[in-house]
Design a protein that fits this description.
binds coenzyme A, globular, Peroxisomal Thiolase, Chain A, domain 1, four-stranded mixed sheet, single chain, alpha/beta, about 350 residues, five-stranded mixed sheet
């Protein structure tokens, strides 16, 4: 049994901030940002939330797939920036869609999140547990961005992407089949928590009513939680460390996944990489000795949207008619954790 992506969707907020808007907030310039990152503008939420964007991207993906909400067995929302802690964003999406039969949970693995959501759903589908999965990456990173820090605020943006993954046994005869190698591609993923300090963001929900100094201060001064946020509650990053990590580990993990599945680089039509920085994408292409045409990019328009970047790019390629049945794609994610991984998919 295998599983294929049979529909994609995305939602992008309409409000944009270009590099000149950023240059009014911090000391930087359009030229510097374009040259060092490739980003020209980013889309930022106004009335939208992580959940509302996720639900709209999901609606569009289901529509593209021709799958009704009632047919969905599994919803995974990958996010680090949900507007809800409880219930999980995936349950909120279920409610919005009326996907009453779905099992729902969130996944938190930052920019590798969508690749891990795909792998998780693939494991469920190929083992016969579920048949139809809705995978969503949705991020409101503008809420986690320190708009006074020019090392990070130039990079990130908001948006959501979604994909419908379906097992080829929709008729429903084969439950819990024996693992059948060769029917689908095995992923390769890694994590290195010891290096997690390179990209951090402290939870805003650690004010302890009994012991927390901040909580006490909050009571004493009747301040709201927002006024007690410090820099550690926004994304903090050692940009050079993350850059070095990405340009070394991403080509390595792509090489690993190709070797494991005995697929030659020439057989890959597109490398759908997490959209963090144009220079990272170019460095990965160079190390793999693969042409840039195989590395589509949209980070110039959206910036880094963390776990939403891969499904947004996939949806754009799909809607532009660039993906053809039988094509092989590599999805490659990397980011905070540190985490990184790659999966091969064959387009339906
Ligand atoms: N505008 C203008 N100058 C800036 C700047 C900005 N926004 N940010 C930093 N600088 C300055 C620095 O202060 C430094 O000045 P100095 O030489 O006088 O000290 C100079 O530019 C170079 O800084 P550096 O940090 O070496 O720049 P860089 O080439 O590494 O680019 C990043 C910075 C953040 C763009 C880059 O490191 C990067 O993209 N890293 C990966 C980040 C990433 O992808 N994170 C998410 C992963 S999921």
């Amino acid at each position: 049994m295998t599983a294929t992506i049979c529909g994609t969707g995305s939602y992008i907020p309409s409000y944009t901030m270009d590099n000149n808007d950023i240059a009014r907030l911090v000391e930087t310039s359009d030229e510097w940002i374009r040259e060092r990152t490739g980003v020209a503008r980013r889309h930022i939420i106004q009335d939208e939330t992580t959940v509302s964007m996720a639900a709209e991207a999901a609606r569009r993906a289901l529509n593209d797939a021709g799958v009704s909400p009632e047919e969905v067995d599994l919803i995974i929302v990958s996010t680090i920036s949900s507007n809800v802690i409880l219930p999980c964003a995936a349950c909120e999406v279920q409610k919005e869609l009326g996907a009453v039969h779905a099992t729902c949970f969130d996944l938190s693995a930052a920019c590798t999140g969508f690749v891990l959501a795909y792998n998780t759903a693939l494991a469920y589908l190929t083992s016969g547990v579920y048949r139809t999965a809705l995978l969503i990456g949705s991020e409101s990173l503008s809420n986690l961005t320190n708009w006074k820090d020019r090392g990070t605020c130039i990079l990130f943006g908001d948006g959501a992407g979604a994909a419908v993954l379906r097992s080829d046994d929709v008729a429903g005869t084969e439950m819990f089949p024996i693992y059948d190698p060769g029917k689908y591609f095995l992923p390769v993923t890694h994590s290195e928590g010891a290096k997690g300090g390179a990209l951090t963001c402290k939870s805003r929900h650690d004010f302890n009513g009994l012991t927390g100094e901040k909580h006490q201060a909050c009571q004493d001064h009747q301040a709201d939680a927002e006024s007690m946020l410090d820099e550690s509650h926004y994304m903090q990053m050692d940009g050079q460390a993350v850059f070095k990590f990405a340009v070394k580990k991403v080509p390595e993990v792509i090489g690993e996944v190709l070797k494991l599945n005995q697929v030659a680089p020439e057989e890959i039509d597109y490398y759908i990489m997490h959209q963090a920085n144009k220079r990272i994408v170019e460095a990965v292409a160079k190390r793999l000795d693969e042409p840039m045409e195989k590395f589509p990019m949209n980070l110039q328009e959206y910036g880094n949207t963390s776990s939403a970047s891969i499904p947004i790019l996939l949806d754009e390629l799909n809607r532009e008619g660039k993906l053809k049945p039988g094509q092989k794609l590599v999805l490659a994610g990397f980011g905070a954790g540190l985490t990184w991984g790659a999966s091969i998919i064959e387009w339906h």
